[in-house]
């Protein structure tokens, strides 16, 4: 997601950008401020431009406060993604007429080619990118104690998954059926079977493997349910004996016609 935003902003080092490289992250922050965001005046950017300084982290924290970054975390992926989003919004506002014209032309082209549909679904009229909608998603996430993703739509998917699994009528009446119990699986201590050369990457691979196994088990459960459903039908077939009599008569009449 971040690399697509870098490409949209025409960042010259987009292809080589690496969030794990602190120097590249600092240089990107300086480039965004100089070229896109421009929160400070030129002579006020010295502390931020001095990426080798021991006080750069303090200057960076102050910069995030000055641009009103709403994120509580200071982790690079989330903050950089937010800064890129801010830069894109400012880039659009600087040339709104150009982008609006291009967008309207694309919409007209799509409308001319697509069939017209009339719907009364109120969800079709919601702006899923509006500040009010994003604030609503984050509020629900806080209530449900769900970690927020920089992309609010992914946060919404997590909320939907929790509601479907934990807040149905059956789950509320029998919470023991949906609340996991037992000792957490110590995946950090298990052998991955291969080595990616990086501790964080190896841990991520372990998590992905567990999620994959979980999906396979869920698929197997659904297959078993289908088999049971089919067996309940085939194990107790219902027959109409009248059809057998009709078929017998048909055979008799057919035999008589051949004899004649």
Q: What is the radius of gyration computed over CA atoms, rounded to a whole number of angstroms?
A: 30 Å
Largest sheet: none
Instruction: Give the mean pLDDT.
Output: 79
Q: Structural class of the helices, strands and pairings? A: mainly alpha
Number of strands: 0
> Uncertain segments of ≥5 residues (pLDDT<50)?
none
Please give the share of residues in helix: 55-70%
Task: Give helix and strand order, one letter per element, not per position.
Answer: HHHHHHHHHHH
Structural domain count: 3
**Total helical elements:** 11
Distance between the termini: 83 Å
Shape: extended
How much of the sequence is in beta strands? under 5%
Features:
260 residues, mainly alpha, 3 domains, extended
Short description:
This protein is mainly alpha-helical and 260 residues long. It has helices at residues 2-8, 22-37, 46-49, 56-66, 76-94, 96-113, 131-144, 152-166, 169-173, 199-234, 241-259. The protein folds into three domains: 2-113, no CATH class; 127-181; 186-260.
Explain this structure to me?
The chain has 11 helices and no strands. By secondary structure, the protein is mainly α. The chain has 3 domains: 2-113, no CATH class; 127-181; 186-260. The radius of gyration is 30 Å and the shape is extended. The model has no long low-confidence stretch (mean pLDDT 79).
Topology:
Elements lengths: L1 H7 L13 H16 L8 H4 L6 H11 L9 H19 L1 H18 L17 H14 L7 H15 L2 H5 L25 H36 L6 H19 L1
Helix pairs in contact: 1-5, 2-5, 7-8
InterPro entries: RTRAF
Pfam families: RLL
Protein name: RNA transcription, translation and transport factor protein
